Amino acid sequence: MRLIFYVGGKRSAVERDEAEMIVQRFRREIEDGDDENEVYKVDISCRSWKKEAIDIIEPFLRSVSRTVKFVDFADIIAGRMTDEGLNITKQLADMFLDANLIEINLSDNAMGPRGLERVESMFTNTIDGLQRLYLNNCGLSKESMEMLKSYICSETNGVKISDTLTDLVLDKNMIGVEGAEVVGEILSQCTQLKYFSYNGCRPEAKGTKYLCQGILNLTEEVKNRNQPIMLQRIELEDCTFASGENENDAIIPFSRALKQCSRLRHLNMKDGALEIGGLKLLVNALSEGSPNLTHLYLDGQGQLESDGARILSNFLHGQVISLLSLHMDWNDLGDEGVSILLEPFSASRNVLQTLSLNGNLIEQQGAKAIVRALLPELKLLSLTDNDDIHQNHIRKKYGDVAKLDDIDDDDGHDENNDSLMDALVQQMENANPFQ
Questions:
Q1: Count of domains forming the chain
Q2: pLDDT tens for residues 206-241?
Q3: Which of 175, 289, 393, 417 has the fewest Cβ atoms surrounding its Cβ within 10 A?
């Protein structure tokens, strides 16, 4: 039986006494089972580990390390002095010298390049190749990315991690423009990559271009090998794609890459500054790639208004049978834009569960379009920061599903218009449009 060494407990420091109890508990669990029991995953995350506590669990972890495939060391040195935290990180890494790890999570540890250097053995000792690596919020820089590139792209024990890596998550690190260039070089070699996330790293326009060129190089390399492109999830929030009017705009190589990504399911480009031109390139690329998206995040792309809504609506007609989540906050869609955007959801059976249209200048006509939409699977409708929207009628149809500003409706609504809205709500509640 495969066992998980999971500590859990309150978010607090692990003292010596608790560490002894943890080891005793897991020794009993192993001994109470059959001879084939093995520890498959070690999860000591979200607890702050003191040196004396690590010393207590070390002999046990070393004894089971050969069978461990997954390690979760997220947020384990909070509150420790820098040198103590770095030494604890190295001590843990050294415990798994004999492990053949396929997943490493080191997120939320203030590591920086000094910390990343101390965990090198976790990368270089893998035999079959690491598959999933999570380094969110680790204080990483360009120097750190140079180290990471050497770990991932250099051959060790006859294996290059770049040939096996499927998940690479680097969110919330101030890697900088030059560091983004190194990340782009890493991406170009990760031919099995399925999931890449770079949210909140703010690479600016130039750095975004490096990332997108890396993704494009990846798709071209895989295509040259006559292999399938595996990319399924791309998270590039707070990157700058721009409109495509300039040849250096990142949306140009990114759209070229997306034309090859038929397996893509999840795309996050929040605050990407696409505007109309970039949106056209994006939608054309997705249409050619023919993915079946489940999640699409296009918040904060500029003043898309009705023209942008029409571009996206035409694409969504082919996506409604798979799309579970659509986020279009802060795009100045207005009433007309919202009406156009929702056309596919009124004309076709859909599976949409989350719709977010915060801050889009929605008023009465937009509210009617939202009431008119046919969203049988909807679980969350977010419409905050639309000050003139008629909330009562939204709530009548969607109830607790709708998330709106906590304000009273404007008393100045026209009574005739209110009556029409009431009738429309009743009509939609009684309708079964797909029979």
A1: 3
A2: 999 999 999 999 999 999 999 999 999 999 999 999
A3: 417
